[in-house]
Amino acid sequence: MQTPHQPIEDHAPARRRLLGRAPRTRSVIAATGLLVICISPFAAAKTGNNLREGLRNGTATAETQIIGNLGSTTAPTGGFVTRQSNLSSSGGGAIYGCRSKAGGTAAKPTPQNPCIRANNLSTGFAFEFNAANGNAAGLITVGPGGDTKKPFTTNATGVATGLNADRLDNLNAADILAAAAADATTKSNNAKSRWVLIGLDGAIEAQSGGFTVVTAYPQGTPTGTGAARYNVYIDAGDDLSDNGLNATIALQNQVDQGPPATPNNGTVDAPDMNPEFSGEVSIAKCLTPGLVACAPAGTASNNVLVVSPRNSDGTGTDPGERKRVYVSVTG
């Protein structure tokens, strides 16, 4: 039997005692557990365990790897490990930024990784760009641009199919080489001297090419009167406005060039012959404004030059006194 003042021992289980506590105590315990559950995902985001949509995630200090194993497909979706798409009519699918310095992955001593690298470890494409409805596939800009900037470099020297890399101003490489060769030939011909040798009769004895005689020692009225009958007019086959002209007497010692009173004039008689070792000649382009106007028909042209062989005293050369003349055109 118990004595009236002996305490009664409580044998109720601990769970029952907890439930028997005040409502305030139970609420504090439950709220603490809920807070732990709710906070955990946000704390994990900074460690790389979870990503949050629509928010900036924490800065990672190691690679975030997304690795899959799925084959290609002809379906509208699928076949890629990740897919980023923007349904906005003005938005982009992805943007990648970095702060890599010059040199790329080949830079020494520290590689400079590009902002984007597509590395195909097999034999297929490393990238594809497709503009479904646009007129241009894209844009490559390098700083302010200019001749010192390069859009890209490559070690591949083959022709890029469809890129028209072998055409410039609608000319392919063969056309460009042919045009360059023709231009070089033209410049070479223009730079070197062209020449023609005019004989005693006013006809061409020899030439480098392109010369024709328009008229020589013209006789009759009106072009044959006065000094014109001592001239030879030569078409050079090209505009002479920017060319240099030169003429010189070509000697001869096989034709008698003595005065008419000489008994053997016009004969090849060495002991008595008077060969031509002297004389003078002047030259000019026809149509030299304010200075030269050529009268015979067909000579009023920038392609035509006139030479006037003379005796050493400046008198005109009639038949039996005429000179052989070398004419050169330079430039």
Structure description:
The protein has 331 residues and is α+β, with helices and mostly antiparallel strands. Among the domains are: 163-192, no CATH class; 193-330, no CATH class. It is 15% helix and 15% strand. It is built from three helices and ten strands; from the N terminus they run H-H-E-E-H-E-E-E-E-E-E-E-E. The chain has helices at 14-19, 23-45, 173-191, and strands at residues 167-168, 171-172, 194-198, 204-207, 212-216, 232-235, 244-250, 280-285, 304-310, 324-330. The protein is rod-shaped and about 115 Å long. The termini are far apart.
Keywords:
10 strands, four-stranded antiparallel β-sheet, alpha+beta, disordered N terminus, 331 residues, 3 helices
Report a brief summary of the structure.
The chain has 331 residues and is α+β, with helices and mostly antiparallel strands. The chain has 3 helices and 10 strands; from the N terminus they run ααββαββββββββ. Helices cover 15% and strands 15% of the residues.
